[in-house]
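Milestone M4 deliverable, item 7.
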Amino acid sequence: MEQRIVALDVGGTSIKAGLVRSTDQGISLIEDSLLARPSHAEQEADRILEALTGMIEKVASFAEKVDGVAFGFPGPFDDAKGISYMKGLGKFEAIYGMPLVPAMKERLKGRGNTAWEEIPFSFVNDAWAFALGEARYGAAARYPRVFCLTLGTGCGSAFLEHGKLVQGKDGVPANGMIFDQPFRDSKVDDYISRRYLLQCAKEKGLDLDGKGLFREASNGNGEAEEVFQDYGSVLGQAIRPFVLSFQPDVLLLGGGISQAVSFFEGALQEELPLDHLPPVICSKNLSRSALLGAAGHWLDQFAI
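Output delivered:
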């Protein structure tokens, strides 16, 4: 049976969205429906809700009937209740503790469309949405066990076995996330996120943002290349325990830093166990994968 899901990949800067079509033959994105708009994450609750519901309505206009709405949303977030608990991160603080589904449905209903009242909404961590999309429908689909990292402002992670999320076994943390796991004198996120990369660059006299650092490395700047190599070594050390315990068949990378993988892949792999050295692959379509993964998560719960 065909079902159509409005899928949204919500980030601190922008919201990407599209209509996903699910049939007995598989799922696909309706290309014409793909949109990207500012998320206004740093503004008041009304502006954030308007951004979310506006995207839902716009994407829904590409279908005669919508069966569901699926979100990939950054954490901390209660996926079951649809409540954000982000605080001190400079984004989505105005909706802290707010049950989002009734707030969004009330807004949609206020525009004269009562059909939304019975439509189920689902939420999944944005890194998990990306991982599900790639592990089920993308570059990692042929690998049974997938260890996924999204490397950017923060570090997202997911562990999957045959397209299903793994939590609390095989060395995987109970919540499936490694960002807050102990590492060196702090935690993993403090060493493999963008702020650590740029801190290392600054120590070498390179006062650049991530794009500038990548540009310098691409232009043959030896110090910029060294920054990425040092980053790769630290990344390998941080994830080594999880590679040893989970023994993934592939290491899947996404996020902005992953685009520089050619500069740090060698250093990363040097820190991983020789007897289980997974290949490293990178997604070129993080947002598309996240939309498909969010829709796939919705289908897990509500597919007819």
